[in-house]
Amino acid sequence: MYYAFPLLAVIFWAGNTVVNKLTVGVIFPAEIGFYRWVFAAVLLTPVLLRPTLRSWPVIKAHMGKIFVLGVLGMAIYQSLAYFAAPKTTATNMGIVLALMPVMSLILAILALGHRLTAGAVVGSIFSFLGVLIVITSGDLTALAQQGINGGDAMMLVAVAAYAIYSTLLKKWQIPLPAMQLLYAQVLVAVVVVFPLFAVSPQAGLNSDNLPLVLFACVFASIGAPLAWMTGIKHLGPSRTTVFFNLVPILTALIASVMLSETLGQHHFIGGGVTLFGVLVSEWWTRPFRAKAEAPLVPDAHLT
Fold first, then answer.
1. Cα 60 to the chain's mean position, in Å?
2. Strand, helix or coil at 117?
3. CB of 16 within 8 A of CB of 220?
4. pLDDT tens across 196-225, in order?
5. Across residues 46-63, what is the average pLDDT?
6. Rounded distance, CA 192 to CA 134, Å?
7. What is d(CA 77, CA 69) in angstroms, rounded to the nearest whole number?
8. CA separation for the pair 221, 78 (Å, rounded)
């Protein structure tokens, strides 16, 4: 039964990637990036305000770290997807997201002291090659001539931001209950995103864009993290993170139905190569320079 929680989370995230594309033309990126966090704060405040205030001494002691986490994991990662949506396809966005486990693994080796494994090296190469195939439509020579599509470049930055966020979340180990830490980061996102919202053009909430905002708020901002954290609690981070590999597949399927996006040969090849790289990095845990003692299996995939 516990496997249902991470599966539910990745369904929500894949659906939200398609929602990002649906926002184009009905609401400005800065608007939905702000409204989703405001609505999430309104929903969470009645339940979490009092317990969070009781934890104020801990929050005060780790205020700087919580701010950094909120900026990386909520403001940058979540908002950039809305700015990327007009410039790329939902399918491309989902496949670029598949780099996240590999990026998290590399950062865990660099920042957390996890042992370098053969799978990490080989898997990173395959995953990056797969993403290049997708964003160049199968013509790698186009990268040197035209560069990377603006939307795909934004998604790469967003994925890097979340990988750093995940690594710092593990490294810092802030002693707060998960929901209180999430709530604190949501409040940070509201404050950080507001200036951009204030100076950006606004369409206003209406019947066309309100359902998209509510989906992003309820399912992507609250439901997915809650389901993901529940999965980690009962299954552990390693088994839970494997489910993230389903995001590009689910995104492509949902986009093909809801957005009528055509899946080209480069999507299948590039997506397959990327997923192969991710699986290699997770399953091939033999360390370089093996020592006499039993090798450690890195637990590097974080949420």
1. 27
2. strand
3. yes
4. 999 998 888 999 899 999 999 999 888 888
5. 94
6. 32
7. 11
8. 9
Please tell me the distance from the alpha carbon of residue 123 to that of residue 214, in angstroms, as a whole number: 37
Per the listing, tokens 């810092």 go with 172
Checking if the pLDDT of 259 tops 50, the result is: yes
Q: At what angle do helices 265-283 and 90-97 cross, to 10 degrees?
A: 20
* C-alpha separations of 135 from 13, 78, 94, 138 in Å: 20, 20, 11, 8
Q: Is the pTM of this model over 0.70?
A: yes
Lowest mean pLDDT, pick from 32-36, 183-187, 223-227: 223-227
Whole-angstrom Cα distance, residue 205 to residue 38? Answer: 13
**At residue 261, does pLDDT exceed 70?**
no
Collapsing DSSP to helix, strand or coil, 287 comes out as: strand
Q: How far is CA 148 from CA 12, 100, 156, 190, in A?
A: 28, 18, 10, 30
65: its two tokens: 């770290």
Nearest C-alpha neighbor of 100 from the set 233, 274, 225: 274
- In the chain, the percentage of residues whose pLDDT exceeds 70 is 82
What does 46-105 look like in DSSP terms, one character per residue? HHHHHHHHHTHHHHHHTHHHHHHHIIIIIIIHHHHHHHHGGGS-HHHHHHHHTTHHHHHH
The neighbour count for residue 215, using CB atoms within 10 Å, is 19
Distance CA 163, CA 302 (A): 8
Task: Identify which of 246, 256, 290 has the alpha carbon closest to the alpha carbon of residue 12.
Answer: 246
In this predicted model, what pLDDT tens digit does every residue of 289-303 receive, in sequence order?
544 444 444 443 443
What does the block give as tokens for 263? 């899946």
In sequence order, the 6+-apart residues with CB closer than 8 A to the CB of 189 are 37, 70, 71, 74, 75, 78
Q: φ and ψ at 94, to 5 degrees?
A: -65, -40
